[in-house]
Every structure is written in C-alpha cells, then in structure tokens.
Amino acid sequence: MEIFGYRTQVFRRALCIAGYLFSCGALLLLFYWKPEWDVWANCTPCDLEEADIVLLRATDEFQRYKRKKVISLDLQRLLDSEKPEQLFSEDQESVINRAIARPGGKVRYIQVQKIRYVWDVPGKAFVRVGSLEDSNTCYQIHQKFRDGLTRRQRDLRRWVFGGCLLHILNPFYVFQAFTLTLWLAQGYIEYSIAIIILSIISIGLTVYDLRQQSVKLHNLVEEHNKVQVKVWTKPEGGHQSESCHLVPGDVLLLEGQKLSLPCDAILLDGSCVVNEGMLTGESVPVTKTPLPQADNVQPWKKHSLEDHRRHVLFCGTEVIQTRPSGKGPARAVVLQTGFNTAKGDLVRSILYPKPMNFRLYKEAFLFIVGLVIIGLIGLVYAAAVFGSRGVSLEHAVDTFNTKEGPDVSLLGVVPFGRGMFFLPLHSFSSGPLPWGPLCQAMATCHSLLFLEGRIQGDPMDLKMFEGTGWEMQETCSEEKETGETEAFTIVKPGATASQAPSEGMSILHQFPFSSSLLRMSVVTKELGKDTHGLYMKGAPETVASFCHPKTVPSSFQEELKSFTAQGFRVIALAHKVLSLDAEDSLRDLDRDEVESGLTLLGLLVMENRLKGETRPVLEELRDARIRTVMVTGDNLETAVTVGRNSGMIPLGDRVILVEAADPEGPQPASVTWQVMEDMQSCKEKNQDPCISIDGSSTSFHFAMNGKTFQVLQKYFSPLLPKILVNGTVFARMSPGQKSNWWEFLLLLLLKSCGLVLPPLQALKMAHAGISLSEQEASVASPFTSQTPNIQCVPELIREGRASLVSSFAVFKYLTIYGLTQFIGTALLYWQLQIFGNYQYLIQDVCITLVVCLTMSLTEAYPKLAPYRPPGRLLSPSLLLSVFLNVCFTLVVQIFAFLFVRQQPWYSPIRSHRGCPLGNEPFLLGNGTGNATEPEDTVLSYEDTSLWPLVTIYCIIVAFVFSKGKPFRKPIYTNYIFSTFLCIQLGLSLFLFFADIEAIYKGLMLLCTPTIWRIYILIMLLVKFGVSYFVEDAILQNHRLWLWIKALLRFRSSSKYRKLQRQLQRDPSWPPLNQRDFAEDRKGEAYTNPVFENSEGD
C-alpha cells in the first residue's frame, strides 16, 4: 500500500460538519463510501512524521483508499523514571526501542486490518509490530529470550503490540428507503407495506446469517484467548497466565499436557509432537525440533531455510506430546500473537477478503449503468408526457425495480552387495528382511510416533516400518551424567521379524525430512552397546551424493530407472557409524558433518497403485476438454509412468524431457530437449525398449523436474509460457517451486483448480483449492472434501458451472422482468395511468420473488459438457437474449395497447367494473359511467390488457431461462420451482378469466369479452413459442455459435489460446534432440525469494 500523511484543519472541519447538517447526513454517507474525499475535504497534506490522519491507497488495479487515524501512546507513566535504554540494553535494534520518541516517551501508531504499525523514529516509516524481528539470528534469539522477559518489559510490549486477542452500511438499503418514501407518497400503501415486511425479513435473515458467521468466527478464535499457559519471567520464574496476556518474547513452558497453541512460538528446548491438520489438511503428527544455537550472522529463517517451520509451533495447532531436553521442560519463545499468527491471518482474510478482479464485476457494473440510462430515459419521457398534459411533475415520477493421499504398498527392497552390484529384489511377501544395516535403517529412519497406544505418522514411513516386523515402544528418557535429560524412542524386533542378535535400538536424534533437502536421517544406538550410527533415507540421487563413491555401484542409475520407469516409488537408504563421546550433546551435532561419507545400503521399492476412481475421473475431465497436469515431489520417470497409466498422457502421445542446467564458468545456462522412452507401451507389446514417436501424432507433453523449472524461470523466462502450454508432468518440485508454478500459470495462462494436500501456498493461490482431508483445513484450502479421492474435482466443476448458469439466468430474468414492467408502465403513462397496487404485488412478490428464490435450486447435470458456459455477463448470447425478449414484449404490448382501442366495446372513460350477468350480451359502451366522474389513474381497458401480458410473461421467461442440459438437470427435477410455476400460471389464468366482482374490484380490472381474453392468451402463446425457439434453438445452440465463429473467423483473445495457435503454426516447435543456450545472462529473470524459501509441506 501507498501511504500519505495529512493534518486536520479546524476551518475545513467546521465547514464539513455544516455540510453534514445541511445535507441531512448525505455528505457524511458520501464520505463514508469515499474516504479519500473525506480526507481531502478535512485535511491538508503534510509529512508522515507530523500527520494525524493517513490515507492508504492499495497498489493493485482497484486502488482502493482507506482513512486511518494516527493514535499516540504516552509511555511516560509506564516507564516512570526508567529510561528506554535501560529496558532495551540487550536489544537496541528492537522495533519498540526505535518507536519511542525521545524526549516525551510517546509512540505513534495506526491500526490497519487488525494489524498495528508503529512509527519508526530513526527510519521515518510505519513498521509492523506484533512479532519478533526477523533480523534476529539463532544465537540472538536464545541469548535474548531464553530466560524470559521482566514484568516491565512485558507490560511495555503489551501496550505497544496490543494483547494476544482475536476479535472480530449497505447502499442497497439506502436505495430501498428512498423508493419506499416515494411509493408511500404515490399512494402505494399496501405495496409499500409488503416491501417493508420483505425488507425487514431480508435484513433479519442477513443479520442472522452475519450473527451465525460471527459466532463461528468467534468460536474459531475465542478458544485461544482463554488458554491457561505457563510463562517464564525473570526473576519470578514460572507462573500461570491467560493466553490473552502473551506478548512476543514471552517464554512458554511446555510440560507434557495437551495444549491448543494460542500463538506462534519458536521452540528453544526439547521437542514437541503437534497436529497441524488445520494448516496442511493432513492429520499426521509432526515432530518439532528446537532452534539450533548456531553462532552466525544470518537471520534465523535464512539459516534454516525451509526447515525453519520445523522449529515453529503454529497458532491453532495442537501439541500432542512434549519431550524435555536439557535441565528442564520444553521451552518456546512467543514469535507472534493475535492477528499476526497463521490463524490470525485466516481470520483477517475472512474479515477483509481480497477484492477479486473478475471481469464479471466490471460487466455487471456496465450492465447496471445501461439500465440506469434506460430508467433516466423513462423519467424524461414521463416528465414530458405529464408536462404536455398540464399535470404537475410531482405525479410523474415512478420507480422501476429493475489432495489425494497415495495408495502405497511395500513391494520389496534391493540390497547392495559387497561386490559393487545390487542383489536381487527381496519381496516382503516371501518373508521378513534378514537382520543387518538395511533392516536397521528401515526400522529406525522414519518420523513415526507411538501415541495413544498406536503408531502414527506418514503412511509411507508406516508401510516401511511394518515391513520389518519390528515394534515401537513409548518414548523413554534417562538422566545423563551431566544432569541433562535425554528422551528417545525404542524399536524392538517383533514376533514376525527375522531373528536378530540385538534387543533393539533407540532413536536418539532426528534430522527431519525437508522437501528442499529431499532427505532425512536419524542418530541411533543399539541397546546394550555404546556404538552409535546414522541412517539416512531420501531421494535416491540425493542419498547417493552423500555416499562414498566406491559404495555406489556403476549400475545405480540403470537399476533406479528400471523401477521408476514402471511407476514404482523408490527410496534409497544409507548408513554410517558415528563416534560419539558420552559428553557430546546431540543437539550440537552439525548435520552437514555427520551426513557425509555414508555407505549405500540399498533401494526400497514401493508400489504406488492408482485408486480405482482415478482413471475414470481423468477420462471424464479429458472428455470434457479439461486439461490435467501433474505437479509432484516424486521421481520424474515414476511421475511420467503414473501419468501414462492414469490416462493423463494418452497412449501414443510423445513425452519430451526438458532438462536445464545452470551456467558453468564461461558457458551460459542451457536447456536440452529429448524424447523419453515409452517403457510402458513397449512392455505391453512385449517388445524391446523403444522410443514412442508416431509421425502421424501431433500430441506431445513436456516433462521436467523442479531444478529445470527453476533454471527456466531464471534464465529462459520467455520460453517458460510456451512450455507450460503443453507441460504435463512436473516432478521433484519443492513447495516453493510449486507455488511459483501456480503463479506463472495464473498470471500467464489458465484458470486453475488446485488439488490434493500440500503445499499450502499453492492451494491458496489456486482459484479453487481442494483439500482431501477429514481434518478441518480452513487455512489450507477454501474447499475440503470428506471423500479422500479426486472424484470431488468434476463434482466441483459441475456445481460451479451450474451455479454460474443459474446466476446468469436469474440476472436475465430480473432484467427482462424490469424492462417488461417498464414498457407496460411507459405505455400507461401515455394516458396518465399506472398499474394498480395489487397488480404490482402479484408481479413482484407472488411471482418474481418466488422465481428468484427457487430457480437456482436445479441441480447440476451429472455429466460434464465438453465446453464451458458463457463466463461473461456481456456475452453476445446473453445480450441477444435480453434484447430479443425485450423486443418481443415491446411489439406484443404495443399491439395490445393499440388493438384494444379498435374494439367495438372499448370506452376511454372508466368507472364500471361489473360484467354482464348470465347470458346478457356484452353491450357496446359497457364500462362507461358518468362522464362527470373523475378519470381513474388505474382503471382502463389498456391496463386490463397489459397486466396479464406482463404478469404471465414473467412466468414464461422463468420457464424459458430454466434450461437443463448440458449444465443443469431438466426443469422438472426442480420440484419446488416447477410446482410454484404451475401454481402461478394457474392462478394468473384464473384471475384473468374468472368473472368475479371481488377480483375485479381488488385488482382494479375491467371486464372484457371472452374473445378478447382469448386474443390475449394467443398473444402469450406466440410470445412463449418465439421466446422458447430463439432461446433454445438459436441462443443456446453451441454448434450454431461455433459455426458462426468459424464463419466470422473469430478467435479467442486469451493469452493461452493465442500462444497455443502461435505454437501450432511454428514448424520448429517442439524442439527435439537439441540443446539451446541462454542468450544474455544480464536478462535473467528475477526469482522471488518468498517462493524459494516459502512454507514447506
């Protein structure tokens, strides 16, 4: 946001207050909607340092303004005689220290969307507060905050930061108030009362809905405001406190009890097991490790890169288990509180949703402007007619209401023999794995936990551990000679395990898995022995790079490819003996040092079976011409094979492998293009491996890994959009790369639908992110499917399309209803008349209101259509529909208005309402009364003729616009709507044909001959036939519109389609079996570090 400073002027303020009074509050309401006008009228520009009002302007395309008052806090009383330098002697660069003005002890701040920004005096800018400074190093965090804050420091931070609390005039009602006043003045008493009742009901339902949302939101956050936590302060020590009093810098003591975290905190000592289902959508326990005490100058987040999340306990997550370390319980320093936390950010996104730049909103505004212009034309017409007849203008005004989880099974393991070659695959179905380092690696190198009497954790780790036949026991702890308490997990051979000369093994320390590092490792010790070992597992190419070259066989890549090409998931295992002394602290181990010089043990092969519903769903999406893309962290060849087996890559299509390399010395960055071998299709044909290149096939798919994507983004950014057009498989993608991929796709090419579980950032960036989890995952994704498979994707698309079609149908209906009523009223204005009170009530309440409430209840069609519904409000088909229907009703109403005057029984003077009794003839002049009686403003044969035409036509267009296939089910499946439509039609015909005196008097209608009513019915049938034919056979005829587009040579203007057509005309695309170099390294693209170091899985 851009920020501008202003100072309030007394004289301007006085003038504005006078304007509020003289305008009866209208000026104040205008300033409420236009805060920038308020600031410009009341204030003069000045420097931010002197401002008492600031004006914020968004930097997006909307450029919305916000007015904020600068608030001043006097800290002199709190500081007493103590100087700020004394409180911040160890933290001179603290935001609070920089925000305190000297002398005076005042702090200036503004509050923007629940976030507080204080004035940084030396930096002369408003900076965000509410969290620890990111500039702190790991060492500084331990040194500054390990022993907690003093009471004075806590009070000062609470005053400046605010508490750890989460708390949480529509123009339409102004328009309603104006129109109600006008209708009451015009004598529409009953109609106005009905509208008032409906408005009260609408406001009541709105308030109730807002109240329910507020209660849900309150319940979502209130539980974190009253959590009892144990806080360590100096010199008092530990004491109980409510979470609402927490401030960044407080030290929490985590002593084993289950706890819903009320803030974000950095773990300093010990370890914790938490459930982050709300953040990730996965109910898998996650182990949090303490922040290392590394003595370096790097900020703590950059030091840990993506691993920094492994040290952070997030607000809203549940602490399941804690493990003490050192001389006391687990400790964590409060990082962020209130709306600065991850959960607070969710609440803020609900309270202040980001404006969406949908073209629909702009087109809706233009559409409404068009209707306003028509209304103004009608106003001028009415004024001219009434003025020419000598009628006062005050009587001439009327208002027209116009993540799918993997299905993994353990196949076997390929041990590495001593002769520099791999041994045959050991299948677990044939028996347990023999005792040895490979078996020990599978039993210990994982992140599983023994909680609530069962083993919990990652499904792949669970399968691997179950394959050993070993068992896990509760976490144990022992006190070392140094006085420190060491906690660890024990695994022992089970009844089904192979015979082992060992009682078991203890897992002493874990280097957790990171999607950027693609590996994890554990430090273990065999029970009863003093030998320590390190076991590593991860991506085969990564693990092999940490092993001694002599322990990696030359056939490593060939062996790996033989499994990945068949779609198997492969994990490498390695081992190393560690020499640790008794006094060595496991926390001080350097990961880079201990994870080196390993010995490769073998390859763990897992079968990644496709779920039964996956292939049919992908086929349904392909038949509907919806493109599917795979973005995964798996091996590239495994991903390609899964893509072929699932039908994402049809049989016979070419897969082109794209590989990019960073610059090396004088050689610039390069990219190579090579056709991948289609191992699967050759296997099915019992042939030797071959290259699937069909000269007649024009379909191809690009496949690449995350490293290639990163290099392309940095050095070949103009090439990246071309690759994304046909990119189908993106493997070994880290969460940051996935988010970057989403960003490119959204900005350059496509609408998107995010699927599956992590990463969080990618799901948030997608237009429709779906979390396939049984857990509440509101932070991770706007949609959560309780069915853990991808069947929800076509369902969401079907429902979305049906909702869009229904919304446009209601919009068209309301537009045509308003214009139809406008035409009828304009014709009656010609003779200084209007529709009656109850006539309006039937049209507006009994018909239109019911139609709008029930028309959208039609369910989605069960099969996806191979094309999308019109997504534009100003699309040709929608505009033609409105225009032609308005033309039909205009012609019919003018014809009826003029034709009724030609009837022999017509009389311009209206007073008699009765019909001839029995067999009495309908005499000429029936309906005439005393010529001296004043003319009625409603009663006339024109009104009696136009009212059924308008009323029944509202029912006709409601039926016509309720088209079923291909996006919605047939109209008769919407039982409520169909029933009401039949009742409305029957009631309208009854009122029109029934010769009942009470009806004529109540509705202010005149009796007409039966033949004339039949004429009106014929006009309505003609209108129905023409409207239905035009709407169904022409406007909704997709093939006809395709033919018209082809005839007119119309081409889509979207970036995706333009690029697609450009590439189709390029004979050199796609490049094959060649290598290209970056032209100019100075023109390399900028890589956003936010995405490179973003939140991990």
UniProtKB/TrEMBL annotation:
| Residues covered by region (Disordered) | 1065-1097
List where in the cell it is found.
Answer: Membrane
Q: Kindly list the residue ranges recorded as spanning the membrane.
A: 12-33, 159-185, 191-210, 364-386, 741-760, 810-832, 838-857, 878-900, 945-962, 974-994, 1014-1035
Could you confirm whether the keyword Transmembrane helix appears in this record? yes
- Pfam families on file: Cation_ATPase, E1-E2_ATPase, P5-ATPase
SUPFAM superfamilies found in the cross-reference section: Calcium ATPase, transduction domain A (SSF81653), Calcium ATPase, transmembrane domain M (SSF81665), HAD-like (SSF56784), Metal cation-transporting ATPase, ATP-binding domain N (SSF81660)
User: What InterPro entries does the annotation carry?
Assistant: ATPase_P-typ_cyto_dom_N, ATPase_P-typ_TM_dom_sf, ATPase_P-typ_transduc_dom_A_sf, ATPase_P-type_domA, HAD-like_sf, HAD_sf, P-type_TPase_V, P5A-ATPase_N
Q: What is its main location?
A: membrane
Domain P-type ATPase A span(s) in chain numbering? 239-350
Question: Which transformation does this protein catalyse, written as a reaction?
Answer: ATP + H2O = ADP + phosphate + H(+)
| One cellular-component annotation, GO | membrane
Entry keyword Chloroplast: no
Q: Where is the P5B-type ATPase N-terminal domain?
A: 1-120
Q: What membrane topology was assigned to this protein in its record? A: Multi-pass membrane protein
Q: Name one GO molecular function term.
A: P-type transmembrane transporter activity
The family annotation for this protein states: Belongs to the cation transport ATPase (P-type) (TC 3.A.3) family. Type V subfamily.
Would you tell me the protein name for this molecule?
A: Cation-transporting ATPase
The lineage is:
Eukaryota, Metazoa, Chordata, Craniata, Vertebrata
